[in-house]
Amino acid sequence: MSSSTDERATDSAEQATEQSSAANDRSRRRAVRHAGPPVGETEAPKPVVLAKPADANAAPEAEKVSTAKVASPAPDAPKQRRPLKSLLAWGVTAVVVVALVVAAVVLLLDQQSAQERDDRRQAFVDTARQTVLNLTTIHPETAKEDVDRIIAGASGQFLEEFQGREDPFVGVVRDANVTTEGQVVEAGVENGSETSISANVLVAARTMVSSKEQPEPSPRDFRMRVTVSDVDGKLTASKVEFVP
Q1: Contacting residues for 172 by C-beta, under 8 A, at least 6 apart
Q2: Where are the transmembrane segments (predicted)?
Q3: Kind and range of the H or E element at 235?
Q4: How would you class 199 by CB atoms within 10 Å of its CB: exposed for 0-12, middle for 13-18, buried for 19 or more?
Q5: What is the spatial distance between Cα 139 and Cα 180, in angstroms, rounded to a whole number?
């Protein structure tokens, strides 16, 4: 009886010991999991997980890196393109400036040529007007001076018609007491150019004539063609004729 009781007590003690050992093992395993690996042991490296494109922090950095790589040109490109663009810009500017200068010079020459042409034509007209005024304005008191003024502006055929006849003409004007007051109505160049040495000018004139026999002035209308010639740099009337 006592032997059987001892065996049960022994079995119970062994079971209690085994349960206590198992409980201690479980407690150590829990402690190991919570506390990490034992001192002196190296923990196995954890696998690295790459961030996904949806990650809010990784996406902007990736965009910045890619943008910087795309936007940065080759190191030698700016040095080659900038001088070429500068040369092209200077070339275009130079062409434009030269064209403007040439256009301005041409325009200035055209204006000068037109002004010279107009001045020349006007000089022909003025000479013809003055010749007709001299012919149609004569007074008995100043007949000699009036004739001298006509001869001073004459040349060629027109001068020949007066030379040697000045005195008879002055005598007739004084004896008949003829007075004429001329007025040029219109005058213009019939033909000729700014480079010509002569030009025909048509002159329409009216003169008021009075005399001893007709004291009351009466109008007379004339239409004359005056040939104006350049003689030694001076414009003179070389021919005067009446036209219908």
Answers
A1: 178
A2: 87-109
A3: strand 234-242
A4: buried
A5: 7
Question: What span, in angstroms and rounded, lies between the C-alpha atoms of 226 and 131?
Answer: 8
Backbone angles phi, psi at 218, to 5 degrees: -130, 145
- Does the pTM of the predicted model rise above 0.90? no
Distance CA 53, CA 66 (A): 14
Q: Is 236 exposed, middle or buried (0-12, 13-18, 19+ CB in 10 A)?
A: buried
- Rounded to whole angstroms, the Cα distance separating 190 from 168 reads 33
183-199 pLDDT, tens digit each: 999 999 987 655 578 89
The whole-number average pLDDT for the span 85-107 is: 74
pLDDT tens per residue across span 130-184: 999 999 999 999 999 999 999 999 999 999 988 888 889 899 999 999 999 999 9
Residues 6 or more apart whose CB falls under 8 angstroms from that of 210 comprise 178, 179, 180, 216, 217, 218
DSSP state of 46: P
**H/E element holding 42?**
none
- Cα 214 to Cα 121, 142, 211, distances in angstroms: 39, 20, 5
Using DSSP's 3-state secondary structure scheme, residue 84 falls into: helix
Tell me 140's DSSP state: G
